[in-house]
Amino acid sequence: MSYESDMLKKLVMPTKIEVEHALLKTLFKHNGVIKEFSSGQEIVDEIANEFSLNDDQRVAFLETIYRKENRIKKSILWHRLLFRAADSLAKEKLVSRPTSTFALTSRREWMLTEDGYNKALDLLNIPTAQKLLLPTKSYEVEKIIKKLNENLRPQNYDPFDKSKKTLITTKEYSIRARGFRQAVIKAYDYKCAFCGLKLQSPNSLLWEVEAAHIVPHCFKGKDDIWNGIAFCHLHHWAFDVGWFTLQDDFKITISEKANLMSANYGKFFDRDLLRPLAGNKIFLPEKEESSPHPNSLLWHRKNRFYH
Ligand SMILES: [Zn+2]
User: Fold this and answer.
1) Going along the chain, which residue ranges are E strands?
2) Percent of the chain with pLDDT over 70
3) What parts of the chain have a pLDDT lower than 70?
4) How remote is the CA of residue 267 from the centroid of ligand 1, in Å?
């Protein structure tokens, strides 16, 4: 038995597979990213706490003797176990290495990949159907978000993606849909563009706001920022069914049908949630180029708005 495995056994350290699973679960808890272990003692301690490691287990170190250079290298056994587990997850393509993540987000972090995300959900017994709403980052989705934010706003924008398949539930579709959602709601600072509502779930995980397609998905509307707006659930629905539309100057036009609606409709207590906002300009993204494209809005006025 080698010196290291001897130590692992003597100290009753967790096995590699146990550490790998703990890492995936911790990544999920931290929205898909954790710092490099060398710069993130809190994470190192957090995972050690998961295993209720005692002081001896946390600080035990290994000595590697380099005879030629006549020196001894000491490394903490627990750090080594963590790094090995992360390295093996990276080899299995379940996480991206800090160097790869850095190229994407400028932060040296381990990040879940789509496969790693699925595995974490599986370990935690969370249905994969919840993925669309969870804010958890994945390498593939971050890549889409980066692209959506970096693309230059086209003058002659075509809001249709003619090759789009509307009835697919593939992995590729899930990644694109989540990239669209996260890029849009972030651009609008998680607020409804119509009423300004900004609301999180009590555990701070989920945002109430939704990313609406202006030309809808079922009409092959593109999944990019210029064909998207962030709306609360209510105003997303009202926009989709044509209760209101937007002019090119982003001012709200309300359907004339609203005047025929019973006085007690569309209200939250005394407050009318639709009609008084006619003529108001919506809340726009801070970055002007992320605003809805007139070509998408034109389609909505012609095809969705109920005059
Ligand atoms: Zn709203």
Assistant:
1) 33-35, 61-66, 71-76, 95-96, 109-112, 210-213, 228-231, 244-246, 252-254, 267-268, 271-272
2) 98
3) 1, 166-169
4) 13
